[in-house]
């Protein structure tokens, strides 16, 4: 409960040390902010790093905010140890512990900053912010909005506030879920963050859970190092490690425009981690057509089954239309009806359901959710009306469907589009900016596509929808690159 409400996932010490190592930290006087300090692991790691640095600061002052009274005694002990460690190497150390809400306590400082245009208070900030959705009418959301921050998660709210109280040149190292890199709801956060902060480094853990092995962390995490007020660098360090203690770190330099594409209105942050991914990205760069340029759109299936419960039928009968779920996907096409399925196969056609159905035609369907074990994130298939005869059809909400102004598209275009979406090239590219297993219509809209002619040409080559991945990749590479 506490963990859920307060977003308490304490940082293991190897991860804290890794974060501390990312700072340039060449300030003589350090003013450090630790927001949501927990038991003080992050400050302790940074103090440890600064105490053993060749060029040590002369003074460290820490403001640590922690809402949970239960953690305060531990935090006090930990900061007490920091003081001893600092004093043993001649660094003066001062810590303020605030057992208060970070957000409301930061507002006066931020407002002052906004009014007087003065620089902020801290030159370093290290944070593993609490992670929890904040609803549009919640107190946190209102407080954040009052200083111009529009965001739907506590973690991005914390980070956005921190960026406002850093001095010019101040450094931030934050570990957060990677959903901010491409989540549609994080767009205002990304835009503001990339406007005020220069992205120096992104570190990705290859395993979902290794870094936080003691906790049940489902989201992939990313550590971000950024500096306030500087222009974006030419290159960003992208590093990865498995997340296990002492695991080797692989580092590479990526062009900033490979990480955040110039002119991308979404400001997606692409985590280009290795050569294969770089190749995939280069290949995708060749495909720059927006979906609209192909005359196509992608939408989320309109039948939300639990809302249409009274109209669902296990099996087709008179006056019903086929209802398609991901369970009907098989070998690149739709197999319907699926008698042994627990899902209904049909929906009654009625004045109340007609608006949820689409006219018969050829569509490309993409699963919105894939199991973690599934090889690809994007799983597409062709909906062929010859195999599912009916005048109307329902696509359930766990699917996205590509269409031509609400209608089907030519078969060859659909075959080419499905092959392209199912290719390893698209999958690798997609994973660079998506840390979760969900594939939203917004994500699909953000992809670059080959031209319509190229897709039709590819579609003509595809004779077998269920071909093995390597064969499909070879077709796509030959046809499109
Ligand atoms: C993800 S934990 C990280 C703790 C610690 N920094 C670490 O890395 O181990 C986030 C911490 O923020 C605290 N917290 C949650 N909401 C807060 C708020 N509004 N103000 C201050 N602290 C808060 C939680 O109690 C929790 O200890």
Question: Could you write a compact summary of the structure shown?
Answer:
This protein has helices at 2-6, 13-21, 41-51, 69-88, 102-116, 139-145, 154-164, 187-196, 256-259, 275-285, 411-421, 424-433, 441-445, 452-461, 469-480, and strands at 29-35, 59-65, 92-98, 122-127, 166-177, 197-205, 221-228, 235-241, 250-255, 297-300, 312-313, 320-324, 329-330, 333-334, 346-348, 357-359, 363-367, 380-383, 392-395, 399-403. The protein has 481 residues and is α/β, with parallel strands linked by helices. The model is unreliable at 115-119 and 214-218 (pLDDT under 50).
Topology:
Layout: H1 2-6, H2 13-21, E1 29-35, H3 41-51, E2 59-65, H4 69-88, E3 92-98, H5 102-116, E4 122-127, H6 139-145, H7 154-164, E5 166-177, H8 187-196, E6 197-205, E7 221-228, E8 235-241, E9 250-255, H9 256-259, H10 275-285, E10 297-300, E11 312-313, E12 320-324, E13 329-330, E14 333-334, E15 346-348, E16 357-359, E17 363-367, E18 380-383, E19 392-395, E20 399-403, H11 411-421, H12 424-433, H13 441-445, H14 452-461, H15 469-480
Parallel strand pairs: 1-2, 1-4, 2-3, 4-5, 6-8, 12-19
Antiparallel strand pairs: 5-7, 6-7, 8-9, 10-20, 11-15, 12-15, 13-14, 16-19, 17-18, 17-20
Helix pairs in contact: 2-3, 3-4, 5-7, 7-8, 10-12, 11-14, 14-15
Bound molecules: S-adenosylmethionine.
Residues 6-11, 36-38, 41-42, 65-68, 71, 101-103, 128, 130 line the site of S-adenosylmethionine.
Task: Using brief descriptors, characterize the structure shown.
elongated, 2 domains, alpha/beta, 20 strands, Adenine-n6-DNA-methyltransferase TaqI, Chain A, domain 2, binds S-adenosylmethionine, 481 residues, 5-stranded mixed beta sheet, Rossmann fold, single chain
């Amino acid at each position: 409960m506490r963990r859920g409400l307060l977003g308490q996932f304490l940082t293991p010490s190897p991860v804290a040390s890794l974060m501390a190592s990312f700072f340039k930290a060449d300030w003589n006087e350090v003013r450090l902010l630790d927001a949501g300090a927990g038991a003080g692991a992050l400050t302790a790691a940074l103090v440890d790093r600064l105490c053993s640095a060749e060029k040590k600061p002369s003074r460290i002052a820490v403001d640590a905010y922690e809402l949970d009274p239960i953690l305060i005694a531990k935090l006090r002990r930990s900061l007490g140890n920091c003081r001893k460690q600092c004093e043993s190497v001649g660094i003066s150390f001062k810590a303020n512990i605030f057992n208060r809400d970070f957000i409301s306590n930061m507002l006066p400082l931020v407002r002052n900053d906004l009014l007087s245009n003065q620089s902020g208070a801290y030159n370093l900030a290290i944070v593993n912010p609490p992670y929890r959705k904040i609803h549009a009418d919640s107190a946190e959301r209102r407080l954040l909005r009052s200083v111009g921050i529009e965001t739907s998660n506590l973690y991005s709210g914390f980070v956005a506030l921190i960026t406002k109280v850093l001095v010019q040149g101040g450094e931030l190292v934050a570990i957060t879920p990677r959903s901010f890199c491409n989540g549609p709801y994080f767009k205002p956060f990304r835009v503001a963050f990339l406007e005020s902060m220069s992205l120096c480094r992104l570190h990705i853990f290859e395993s979902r859970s290794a870094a936080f092995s003691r906790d049940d962390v489902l989201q992939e995490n990313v550590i971000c190092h950024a500096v306030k007020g500087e222009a974006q660098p030419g290159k960003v360090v992208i590093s990865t490690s498995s997340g296990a203690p002492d695991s080797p770190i692989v580092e590479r330099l990526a062009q900033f425009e490979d990480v955040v594409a110039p002119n991308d209105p979404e400001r997606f942050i692409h985590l280009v981690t290795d050569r294969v991914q770089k190749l995939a990205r280069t290949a995708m760069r060749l495909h720059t057509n927006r979906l609209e340029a192909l005359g196509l759109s992608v939408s989320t299936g309109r039948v939300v089954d639990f809302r249409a419960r009274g109209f669902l039928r296990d099996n087709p009968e008179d006056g019903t239309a086929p209802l398609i779920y991901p369970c009907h996907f098989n070998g690149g096409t739709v197999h319907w009806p699926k008698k042994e399925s627990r899902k209904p196969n049909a929906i009654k056609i009625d004045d109340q359901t007609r608006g949820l159905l689409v006219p018969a035609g050829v569509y490309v369907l993409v699963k919105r959710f894939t199991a973690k074990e599934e090889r690809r994130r994007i799983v597409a298939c062709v909906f062929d009306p010859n195999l599912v005869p009916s005048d109307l059809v329902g696509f359930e909400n766990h699917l996205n469907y590509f269409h031509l102004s609400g209608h089907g598209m030519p078969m060859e275009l659909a075959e080419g589009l499905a092959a392209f979406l199912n290719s390893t090239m698209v999958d690798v590219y997609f994973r660079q900016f998506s840390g979760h297993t969900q594939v939203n219509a917004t994500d699909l809209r953000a992809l670059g596509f080959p031209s319509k002619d190229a897709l039709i040409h590819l579609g003509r080559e595809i004779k077998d929808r269920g071909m093995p991945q390597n064969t499909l990749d070879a077709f796509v590479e030959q046809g499109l690159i």
